[in-house]
Amino acid sequence: MFKYTCLNPIAQVGLDVFTDEYEKTDKFEDADAVLVRSAAMHDMELSDNLSVIARAGAGVNNIPLDKCADKGIVVFNTPGANANGVKEMVISGMLLAARDIVGGMNWVKENADDENISKSMEKAKKNFAGTEIKGKKLGVIGLGAIGVLVANAANRMGMQVYGVDPFLSVKNALTLNRDVTILKSYDELYQTCDYITIHVPFMEDTKGMLNKAAFDQMKDGVVILNFARDLLVNDDDMKAALESGKVGKYVTDFPNPAVVKMPNVIATPHLGASTEESEDNCAVMAANEIREYLENGNIVNSVNYPNCDAGVCNTAGRITVAHKNIPKMLNQFTNVISAEGINIDHMTNKSRGDYSYCVFDIDSESSEELADKIREIDGVLKVRIIK
């Protein structure tokens, strides 16, 4: 019996993925698995029982990844599950920036008592005139699951679309509309586009990447859209660019005390993935990742351990080992297993940075005695008996 707990409300359609072999618990310390959305976990004590954390969403800034990795806890996210919801928000953001729809709606509310509003609006509407996005040039920074959908949708709406992604996958490249132009550098994109939308993860290399140096290369009046992470944009430099008119509009899903006071900002309260469909998709994917890991020992979409898929076990036993990525570990594992008179029918080993993961399919049932002997090896972080 596996125990799981939810640190945030998780869509029931996701929880329905769990079988009778799973029991929900409110006690974090008793859980084998955790489902989480936005709850902060950095100060939480991680028990030895915990094997897996699944984030029902893409960002994992609320999870202590290194701390989890050091305890052999695999952390998953759900890339692409909320991509369509975010894509639709980006398209909405472009339309809101191109046409002063918000200003027009506010005017209607402010003049709700005007009995001649139908006439008054004909004079007032010129104040809210805008432009069309058809024919405009859109730059997409990051062509992952969301970026590709945005690029393809904008292309179908008649925009000229340009993209930059140094790590563009074969899968996403094949999905991308052939009319989307791939540029070699961010600088070229900055200099070319009327609209720029960013869809990259937050890392040290991407922190504040939209800054004065980037803005200085852009067209006057460029529209910036940020539905990825707030810290990708340097707030001080954005404020200056908005005040000077270099940036015409800043559309962001991440309002903060500085951003909300800037001119020409259109801000929404982190609504990118706030759709029933996105929440359902994320919940289902997260639950399936947990099941695949706990039941088969396979890792798919981990953010702190390598992906490792050994399929369904067809041998008598399976045992998995999360360990430090240091020399001679495999030799020690195989020596321990062979010393028990056990043959290894199949072995899968993957590494990612400082951490590695092994799956051993053996010709006898795994035992706690065998697991304990592997745990004694220096550098081993967690050993799990799958079968």
The number of helical segments is: 13
Tell me what portion of residues adopts beta-strand conformation: 15-25%
Outline, from the CA principal axes? Answer: elongated
Structural class estimated from helices and strands: alpha/beta
Largest pleated sheet: 7 strands, parallel
- Give the helix level as a range of percent: 25-40%
Strand order of the largest sheet: 8-7-6-9-10-11-12
Low-confidence stretches: none
Number of strands: 16
Q: How large, in whole angstroms, is the Cα Rg?
A: 25 Å
> Kindly, what is the distance between the CA atoms of the first and last residues, rounded to a whole number of angstroms?
13 Å
Question: What is the residue-mean pLDDT, rounded to a whole number?
Answer: 96
Secondary-structure element sequence?
EHEEEHEHHHEHEHEHEHEHEEHEHEEHE
Overview of the molecule:
The chain has helices at 12-15, 65-70, 83-98, 101-110, 117-124, 145-156, 170-175, 186-192, 212-215, 235-244, 276-296, 329-339, 368-375; strands at 2-6, 22-24, 33-36, 52-55, 74-76, 137-141, 160-164, 181-182, 195-198, 222-226, 247-252, 265-267, 317-324, 344-352, 355-362, 380-385. It is an alpha/beta fold. The strands form three sheets. It has a seven-stranded parallel β-sheet with strand order 8-7-6-9-10-11-12, with helices on both faces. Helix 3 (83-98) packs across helix 6 (145-156). The mean pLDDT is 96.
